[in-house]
Each structure stands twice: as structure tokens, then as C-alpha cells.
Amino acid sequence: MKSLNQVLASFALVLCIAAGSALACGCGGMPGETFESIVAGAMNTSSMVFQGEVVGFEYRKGIRDEFDSGRIDSADRPLGYEKMVVKFKVESWWKGDLASAIFLVTGQNRYSDGTRSTNSCEFDFQKGKTYIVFADLNKAAAMPQTNNCSSTREAKDEYGHADAIRKVLGKGTLPNKQIVSKLKR
Question: Does the predicted model carry a pTM greater than 0.85?
Fold first, then answer.
């Protein structure tokens, strides 16, 4: 006969899987919205909008995650974690601080037990590719963050959406400040 702890652990696992499915990322729009109004709305509601190339990724300790800060391991000890951060070399700004490089926090965590997690709304950036990014401040992490529901997309997308976004946004401003990078090589 299984112990009560094994039964509870199995039940918790089933609940986590079901909750993950129920909390899948859903992006909604308003009926009758035009592409231009969606982009203009994203510009107005975003804290920063820029175009930049992904030049690296790193995990950092000490970035607060409001959902994972209370996880414990199998021995009921706090499970430490690091947040993945993506670094961009900024080519132009439409809204924001005009730095030549910027770091965005992601929803991906690496835990002290070797496991990793991410969420369904996470934008999948790839090193060496250039993106138009619409980001907001993640208050828990005190860093900017974006997701799949924003208008963020690859700058050379196959559908021409990026060109249409640039047309709505107009000419961007070149970065004019240097920031010190702590990105590990």
C-alpha cells in the first residue's frame, strides 16, 4: 500500500499538469481591430519598444520570481533558482531608455536540483536573430520582459509583419548610451 505522502505527491503532480494545461497562454484581440491599431496600442501600453539582435543568454541569481520563490525540494528545503536573461544589442528605439544594450528577463528558471521550467507565454528568442520587441516592466524581477501576446516578432519575419510594424512606428532613434555588460562569454 502506498504511503499517504506518495499518494499526495501523485495527486499534486496531476494537479500541476492539469493547471499547466488550463493556464496555457491565450492572446485575445478585439473584433474589428486593424493591424495598425493593434501595433499603435502595443506601442502605447509597452514600457519600451526597440529593435535589436540577441547576443547572448545567461542565468542570474537574485531575480525575484513571484511564482517560484516558494518551491521546495523532496526534503522540504527551499529550492533555489536562477532566472534566464536575454541580452540584446539594440539597433534602434521607439520607446524606452535608448541604451545600446538591454537585458530582458524571461520566464525560464533553472533550479538547484537541475530541473528547469518555463511558461506557455514565453517568447522563444534565438541567438543571432534580430527582433522588434515590445516589453513591459516585470515588477517582481525589476527588469523588462515580453511574451507571445505582445507584438514582439522577428525583424525579418516571412509574413511581412515586421515591415508593417516599422511602417506604423516610423523611424526609430539610434541608441546613444553605453551600458556595462556582465554577460558571461
Answer: no
